[in-house]
């Protein structure tokens, strides 16, 4: 069973690989490749939108005489899904992307425009600085200034955030204050009640002494005589303390 599928091949003793005929491939040979569209495009013929990720069969070929840093650029021929018009696109190794060559237009992608703008600025700056020490110094100074501005803005944002955080702490403190205030108020009320009771007791004590004095002087009790009122007496003293009042 082991020899059923042999992978090694027999080479006769007179085998010479140099004698093999070279397979001559034409330079613009096309290979069939099934792939997916790397970007959304619109057909110029029928106006049909073909979306990114659409699968299609294409013919791939080398773009003759076009390389980027020694990397071969490829061209793909494919057809519109609606009108079958031939569309072509190329690889773009410089931007690690693809470019539509003919038959269609690429849909607008805002991030791509941004990238292009940034690239353009960078290139412009480089060309300006080429051999101009003063300009490069100027640019670097501007860069550091911008960086400092950014840091300042960041600091400001941080402090704003911390300010927001302290608001909640303040609220917490206020809540604590409120509870302690309530406690104090309750204590004060209790104190007041105690003072009132003491005054009542004192008043009654004074009245008792006065009554006793009058009784000794006049030999009878003057029930009708108005006695000096020390404190406006509360008609209903607290129940629990009423029990403590001395009985006469
Ligand atoms: Zn079309």
From TrEMBL:
UniProt protein name: Splicing factor YJU2
Cellular compartments annotated: Nucleus
Pfam family, one: Saf4_Yju2
Binding-site positions, Zn(2+): 43, 46, 80, 83
Role, per record: Part of the spliceosome which catalyzes two sequential transesterification reactions, first the excision of the non-coding intron from pre-mRNA and then the ligation of the coding exons to form the mature mRNA. Plays a role in stabilizing the structure of the spliceosome catalytic core and docking of the branch helix into the active site, producing 5'-exon and lariat intron-3'-intermediates.
Source species of the chain: Stylosanthes scabra
Similarity comment: Belongs to the CWC16 family. YJU2 subfamily.
Subunit structure, interactors included: Component of the spliceosome. Present in the activated B complex, the catalytically activated B* complex which catalyzes the branching, the catalytic step 1 C complex catalyzing the exon ligation, and the postcatalytic P complex containing the ligated exons (mRNA) and the excised lariat intron.
Annotated keywords: Metal-binding, mRNA processing, mRNA splicing, Nucleus, Spliceosome, Zinc
